[in-house]
Design brief:
The complex is a heterodimer of chains A (about 300) and B (about 170). Chain A has about 300 residues and is an alpha+beta fold. Chain A has 4 helices and 12 strands. A 6-stranded antiparallel beta barrel of chain A has the order 1-2-5-4-3-12. In chain A, strands 6-7-8-11-10-9 form a 6-stranded antiparallel β-barrel. By secondary structure, chain B is mainly α.
């Protein structure tokens, strides 16, 4: 009986609520909106703060996930950089260069070369993205290799000293004198040094870049005289034969001298790169034969001796 | 009328404390979780979950009252067709409560089935009112949203009750 009364009670309440709902539905729109806003204030505003806090928490979670992902990415890049630095160090060690050189060095691997018996060009795995530009000197630990001629974003072509178009202003470090000349390749892969007719070069004299011409800084070893006065040219010029210090056939890793890295680096610093302990770079046209010129003479002997020892 | 001996599980097992926790979670979830839990456009309806389990536990009277209040709550959210949700949920609450009172068996699967049916019924009422007499609109929206949302709601409701009824 009580249950029956309860059921009846439920039916009455449900009917009243249905009628109330219908009344709400047929009310004018303005009144409906008014009711809705009031209900909104009463029912929803107290929960707005909770909702806002929870939404903020969700946003923080998303941000946390994003930051975590970025951190992982940064760690990965750091790891890559560490590997690159390690490779760089290995290359430097391989070539006998120590850290903290006075000029900017961009280590590079030879990734391609022309397949002639004597190579005349290399392709390196560094380019503009690594700071390499056209016309930069390319060296190995022994001395001059060539210069960059065609530079892409991630690779560079090097015109080697053996290329028919190659030439460089050179400095002969003689027994008691310095002389300027031009170095050019021979068809057989050697080098020849074009000197004034009155030159007193002798076999074994070292030849380095002179620093003139704007491409090669002073002091990069090129080779040494193998045969002095190999031929005369119209009685006006003598041509000496050179043995290059760099064997292009076995060169697999090189450095590009990036002058832009340290624009204030004087040319003499390149001398220190190849001639550690050599304090006084010889200058153009200097005569070192004087008895009182002990510093210049010692420097010249040191440089010549170092080159001979190589 | 369901007897205690016939109970095989379901919302009737929850203590009052857990029942209040269930209500609070469902109400808050209806405000903040429905959007984030959306899958392929279908959202779990926490208001229906709360109403159905309240009606199953409290009977037709509580079902009707809760349906009306929750309907107003939903109408206040949408600000259109004011009273529509109140009407639909009052009827659904009463019907579910009545059904619960006459069912011999109370099991989670049965509760889930009732939940699914309630969500489908609400979708029919709301979409019928919202499509302004256009059968095509109703048909497209109902078959696109209705069944998936009903299944999703039944699953979420079942999981919620199961989690809260753990010892």
């Amino acid at each position: 009986m009580a249950a029956l009364g309860k059921e009846r009670h439920a039916e009455i309440v449900a009917a009243v609520l249905v009628v109330a709902s219908l009344v709400l539905m047929i009310l004018p729109e303005a009144t409906q909106r008014s009711f809705a806003r009031r209900a909104n204030h009463v029912l929803l505003l107290p929960m707005a703060a909770v909702r806002s806090t929870f939404s903020g928490y969700l946003q923080l979670r998303e941000e946390n996930v994003r930051l975590h992902r970025e951190l992982q990415q940064a760690r990965l890049e750091l790891s890559r950089e560490s590997v690159l630095r390690s490779q760089n160090r290995e290359l430097r060690d391989l070539l006998g260069f120590s850290e903290g050189q006075p000029v900017g060095l961009v280590p590079a691997r030879v990734v391609d070369r022309d397949f002639a018996t004597l190579p005349t060009s290399f392709v390196l795995d560094v380019g503009k993205e690594d700071g390499v530009e056209e016309g930069l000197p390319v060296v190995s630990a022994d001395g001059l290799v060539g210069k960059t001629t065609d530079v892409g974003p991630a690779s560079s072509q090097v015109t080697l000293y053996s290329h028919p178009d190659f030439s460089a202003s050179a400095l002969l470090v003689g027994g008691d004198h310095l002389e300027y000349g031009i170095v050019r390749p021979t068809p057989r892969g050697g080098l020849r040094l074009l000197l004034p007719l009155r030159s007193k070069s002798e076999a074994g004299d070292p030849v380095v870049t002179s620093g003139y011409g704007g491409t090669f800084p002073r002091g990069i070893p090129i080779g040494r005289i193998s045969r002095a006065r190999d031929e005369d040219r119209l009685g006006l010029q003598r041509i000496d034969r050179l043995d290059p210090v760099v064997d292009l056939g076995t060169t697999t890793a090189v450095f590009v001298l990036n002058r832009r890295v340290e624009t204030t680096t004087p040319a003499g610093d390149v001398l220190r790169l190849f001639w550690p302990g050599y304090a006084y770079p010889p200058m153009a046209g200097e005569r070192l034969g004087g008895a009182g010129d002990t510093a210049g003479g010692a420097a010249r002997d040191s440089m010549a001796g170092t080159l001979r020892d190589r | 009328m369901r007897s205690d001996a016939a109970r095989l599980g379901g919302v009737l097992e929850l203590s009052w404390a857990r029942w209040i926790a269930f209500g609070a979670i469902a109400l808050l979830s209806s405000l903040v979780l429905e959007g984030p839990l959306s899958i392929a456009g279908a959202e779990p309806d926490f208001v229906v979950i709360l109403l159905v389990y309240t009606a199953l536990r409290g009977g037709a009277l509580w079902g009707a009252v809760f349906g009306f209040v929750l309907g107003l709550f939903r109408d206040a959210l949408f600000l259109v067709d004011f009273g529509l949700h109140a009407l639909a949920l009052t009827v659904i609450g009463y019907a579910v409560g009545k059904l619960g009172d006459t069912l011999y068996l109370s099991a989670r699967a049965v509760d889930g089935g009732i939940l699914l049916g309630a969500k489908l019924a609400l979708a029919i009422v709301v979409l019928a009112a919202g499509s302004n007499g256009s059968w095509e609109t109703f048909e497209t929206r109902f078959f696109w949203e209705g069944p998936l949302a009903a299944i999703y709601t039944a699953l979420v409701g079942g999981v919620l009750v199961r989690v809260l009824s753990r010892p």
